[in-house]
Amino acid sequence: MAIYSLKSKEVLSNLTAPANIDLGAMIPLMTTTLSSNATSVTFSNIPQNYEHLQIRAIARTDRAADTQDAINMRFNSDSGSNYSWHYISGNGSSVSSGAGSSASYIFNSVIGTAASSTAGMFGVSIIDILDYSNVNKYKTSRVFTGNDANGNGLCQIYSGSWRDLSSINTITFIPNVGSNIVQYSKFALYGIKRAGA
Amino acid sequence: MAYTYSKIASVTVGSGGASSIDFTSIPQTYTDLKVVLSTRDSRSSNGPGYLKLSINGSTSNFAYKSLFGYSSGPGDPNPSGTPAAGSDSGSGSSGNYASYAGGTNVQTANSFGNNEIYIPNYTSSNYKSISVDGVNETNGNYPYQNHLLANLWSNTAAITSLSIIPGSSPFLQYSTATLYGIRAEV
Lengths: 197, 186
Fold this sequence. Notes:
The complex is a heterodimer.
Chain A: E1 2-5, E2 10-14, E3 26-33, E4 41-43, E5 52-59, E6 68-75, E7 83-90, E8 95-103, E9 106-113, E10 123-129, E11 139-148, E12 153-162, E13 171-175, E14 186-192
Chain B: E1 5-12, E2 21-23, E3 32-39, E4 51-55, E5 62-70, E6 84-91, E7 97-99, E8 113-120, E9 128-135, E10 146-153, E11 162-166, E12 176-182
């Protein structure tokens, strides 16, 4: 279809059909910004035509009497003991590490702030899940997460595994201790393409 | 139309395995490079799943510092056998390491390492700084689960080819890698 200039009365260019437009490698798929507290955040019906997924989150929970709360991650609503995770963590004065196996979620995919943190402070996270639709692989997540409460704070790298060959079509985030992920928390899901796609 | 984040090339390892993953004839039109890897190598004894670098065909002039976390397990560098974190470095003939979390054939079946290599200003006439973050997973204890690494390639040439080499050759079937170009301006 031609784009016609009414001013110069000439054809400027041809409109390319949407299917022919290359939007680059990183495509925003879904975004959830909480307008009120929620017990969980879920991405459903995730398109299967990308190579990897990335989630960027900024979040806080209502865990009482604490400045931090983990926000855990599950895939395809699987709550069985099919997850494991490992981490290294720094708090500004020391380094620690830990692990969990045969767990029912991937622990702490977002290290959110909690009710005792100053209002307006949120934790942040970048989660990369490679080959999320590859049925020959268990799904491994790589997480950078941290928060700073002007005193308390954590900086962490996490690995997580979901021992299931199924393609990921749903991702759910659940507070570890608090009842809710609170208002203004935001989770954004991106699809990452492979070359040739 | 130029985009800030573009896919350049992808590799999927077939049933015969691969002694390296190679990106050649890298376009010089981007600002930074990023490689995302999901790999498993043929190592059959407990220990790190190394990923090593070769740039423009050379494994020389590299040096790195790293931070890693590990849980207790056979081959664990922490003799007390409890989860801990550590740091190390390498140079000279041992300088071209990119990660200890590349995934090995000892870990839980079907599990692959998850790594990202970022090289800013890869066409500049300065030395090249390389940032790597990587993880691998197993349902239990295993050394080197999480790894952060900073490497310096002391060479002023623009990067035209990049190879990732497994610590224990070959990379196994279903290992994947994709090279992306990042533009500072559209």
